[in-house]
Amino acid sequence: MTSEPSTVDTPLKKLVGERTAKALAGHLDLHTAGDLIYHFPRRYDERGEHTDIRSLDVGEQVTVLAQVQRTAVRPMRQRRGNLLEVTVGDGSGGVLTCTFFGNQAWRERELRPGRWGLFAGKVTEFRGKRQLNGPEYVLLGEGGDGEAAANEEVEEFAGALIPVYPAAAAVPTWVIARCVRVVLDTFTPPDDPLPAAVRASRNLVGIGAALREIHRPSSKEELYRARRRLKWDEAFAVQLTLVQRKARAASWPAKARPPKRGGLLDAFDARLPYELTPGQRDVGVEIAADLATPHPMHRLLQGEVGSGKTVVALRAMLQVVDAGGQAALLAPTEVLAAQHHRGMLELLGPLAQAGELGAADDATRVELVTGSLGAAARRRALAEVAEGRAGIVLGTHALLYEGVDFADLGLVVVDEQHRFGVEQRDALRSKAEQPPHVLVMTATPIPRTVAMTVYGDLETSTLSQLPQGRSPIASHVVPAAEKPAFLDRAWRRLREEVAAGHQAYVVCPRIGEGPVSDEEPPREDDSGRRPPLAVTEVAPLLAEGPLHGLRIGVLHGRLPADEKDAVMRSFAVGDLDVLVATTVVEVGVNVPNATVMIVLDADRFGVSQLHQLRGRVGRGSAPGLCLLVTEAAEGSSARERLDAVASTTDGFKLAELDLEQRREGDVLGATQSGRRSHLRLLSLLRDTDLIRDARAEAQALIAEDPELERHPALAASVAALVDEERAEYLEKG
């Protein structure tokens, strides 16, 4: 270890020793002094303030600040020796049992009632009681307690504000705090990269003071100032990247695709069996204007389930076909791609029958390209695309393969963009000689700050109105563990809907035995929860039990494509009463006669996913019903999440709730790149004003210095916070 000055690049092994440095690297991906200094506390505890133990979820890795209430020693049943049970509380009525195995009389003497400490471990449940098995802990000093005061780890907690770090079982928060103290003793902060004018106008503290106060705050006021400065750095880096890329994209050349009078689009509008909503018309005007410019359109179209995004996209595709180009729509599943194909053929009629008897003048062809096409059908479809006869091409990621060539790709429409990786989207875009126009669609409502931060290089259009004739959806939580009779009633309710001539979905989080696929969550770990319910296991139980006698079909992503399509067709035409499925039905599946959905293990799904799923019912004239079945305990965060979903159909409110419960960094594509998130403090939900101000400053700075040539330190800081891989994610997203 060294006492020489350290910088952000100094290896940790020189500062904290080889063994500790290895643990920090292996468990937390922290390698240098800079990595550690930018590993900010997750929260700050104060002695006397409770941690709210009641809100902890089973399986969660936690650090809690709590007070020892009582201890008890009892013999173990299965083997020799004693068991020490220490009950700790947080002052709010919540308690945890810390269990220590083996004869550890010294722990009983140390863990005296009244002592405060930090306890770290995984929450488990035994006979209805929350517990930590063999937790790591550190006790906090009390007045003149010489023994505790002598412990250098406890010195970290002498102040009023106790930092609690994102930690690992092998590297608890107090070890990280000790390492931070060692580094801060020799740390030389970098030159401040933020322009002085911005610092002054926004009243921001210097980077050196911010980095010290974030770890060892001298007061709540100084901590607030430190956090505000470091949040600003994150927001500013992202906004500079987006504004820069938006400016570059605006200068790219693209082929203009202006509207054509008397063409396919006009003929389509004339044959539409219903009126467009005012929102659809307004968004259509925006998109038409974008397509007519010699620079590529980059537009995000968001709208609630059933708001009519597909018709808006089809009108844009027809404008491009009228202008001599081709349009491709990339769908996340074969089921959805096939449904888009059927729906567009139906809407277009003779306008999609070029080369056939009875085709309209100027008609085009609509081709479906999926991985399950037979060899002869595939050759024919690819020839239609390559020679330009197919103006509209629909497909899954099969469109991305080599051998799928376009004559003149003018527009790429990406449906449910969050289901695709960056590389997949970019592969399709690269099939054009010049950058094509891009329309990204999502039915997952996006809070304003997320749109500003993740899609800041896209223009955004929103469809907020639902077409006439859509019915309301009622949602209810079914607490299966507490009230089994409610689950029995749910199955009876489903049978009532079928008896009335309607159909139903039953959704499970897992397919069944075999490898886990993209559409199901991973198996549970050793937290004590059973595996998620599976389609292949639930369907036969329902057929033999509560849904006996009903016509039941099964749909999931591991079925062969032709079988999936056959099942979906059977359900669509009414040959099946109930479809037991995974989230393969989450997007786009349209069966107006389906009125009820029962989601099993609903707590295993995200908020936005549940909102998407229930959008599959109530698509006709009869009202929809969604029943969220769960074993999550009342008062748990999982149950509160489901209660929130049941309480509103406002997708934007639910999107904000979803954002609250996700790691902020995931929004920036950390999960896509597999890298550690660099959004550590910025909250896209709570820091709206700061993000807006950072965007304004970024626009002003890029206008006068597009490549940040006059601000090299700032450019380096941006590159560190938004690395090239993540910058590409932002650009391509």
Automatic annotation (TrEMBL):
InterPro entries: DEAD/DEAH_box_helicase_dom, Helicase_ATP-bd, Helicase_C-like, NA-bd_OB-fold, P-loop_NTPase, RecG/Mfd, RecG_dom3_C, RecG_wedge. Residues 290-463 form the Helicase ATP-binding domain. It comes from the Bacteria. Keywords: ATP-binding, DNA damage, DNA repair, DNA-binding, Helicase, Hydrolase, Nucleotide-binding. Residues 511-531 are annotated as: Disordered. SUPFAM superfamilies: Nucleic acid-binding proteins, P-loop containing nucleoside triphosphate hydrolases. Pfam families: DEAD (PF00270), Helicase_C (PF00271), RecG_dom3_C (PF19833), RecG_wedge (PF17191). CDD domains: DEXHc_RecG, RecG_wedge_OBF. The keyword Membrane does not apply. Residues 486-660 form the Helicase C-terminal domain. GO terms for molecular function: ATP binding; DNA binding; DNA helicase activity; hydrolase activity. GO terms for biological process: DNA repair. NCBIfam families: PRK10917.2-1. This is Probable DNA 3'-5' helicase RecG. It comes from Micromonospora coxensis.
